[in-house]
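User: Could you check the structure of this?
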Amino acid sequence: SVGCRQIQELEMPCVEVDPCGDAQSAAEGAVLGLHEYNELKQKKKPVVTPQLHGSAESEAWQKGVIYAEGQNLARYLMEAPANYITPVKFAEHIEQKLRSFSNVKVHIRPESWITTEQMGAFLSVAKGSAEPPIFLEIHYLGAANTNDSPLVFVGKG
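Assistant: Sure, the predicted structure tokens are below.
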């Protein structure tokens, strides 16, 4: 992570990372270390692409990159100002990210649906904003074993 950030300061476009016996952790460290929210900054840091040095652990490397990119997406959505990532933009961003997965369905529920479902507490919180509330549902339809218990995440954005 530290080495990748130093390469970023040198404005190098790519850095090869030695996996040091754990390619997944090396990938996560490299990708997470290079993350910086700079979308609204005038001067942006150069983009550096970390790559695996060698090819022995490429599957583990890719898994680490995917995990880190997921965490960086959460960081991006968290760090963006509330007037920039509004509920509508948040939902659209998530829908766009998940669009390519055939086993994931995204439902963006408008205020009328929220009212119909009698989600009074949710509507009360949303009254503090000039933006209309959005209820975002994400359905994962691809469990390998259909007998497994469902996995449910609940949160607020």
